[in-house]
């Protein structure tokens, strides 16, 4: 009898933990990263695996922000320095702090073998943790979504990886 009660209690706890995990997974909307000293929010549905920065092979005759290609889990991926692409840092200027740098692969569903080099991961963010900033009326690229402020007053720019993958300037890597 005690074994049946213990089993029911275990099943009940597991069911509660699974429900909590499902709820928590739904509340996290973005992967927060830092690049060029600025905060960016990448939609979790569009982001793929996160990799440490390893070796990549430079590709001749490409733009400075296209760092080369890397073998990530057996797949060849183009590596883009996010801050350099956005023009907020000179290409190669962020080489000093590579110990925290990471490569964020695009979700395979986007069908783009690309990874973004970011300076640091800043965790997950949910809409409840942020408040939207009003637009400033200045034109922004299609891949730049809304801007948000967190509880500490830090500004975060949402970037759509799906829109970035279709951006003409992002796809033109020949220099």
UniProtKB/TrEMBL annotation:
<dbReference type="InterPro" id="IPR036061">
    <property type="entry name" value="CheW-like_dom_sf"/>
</dbReference>
<dbReference type="Pfam" id="PF01584">
    <property type="entry name" value="CheW"/>
</dbReference>
<protein>
    <submittedName>
        <fullName>Chemotaxis protein CheW</fullName>
    </submittedName>
</protein>
<feature type="domain" description="CheW-like">
    <location>
        <begin position="27"/>
        <end position="170"/>
    </location>
</feature>
<dbReference type="InterPro" id="IPR002545">
    <property type="entry name" value="CheW-lke_dom"/>
</dbReference>
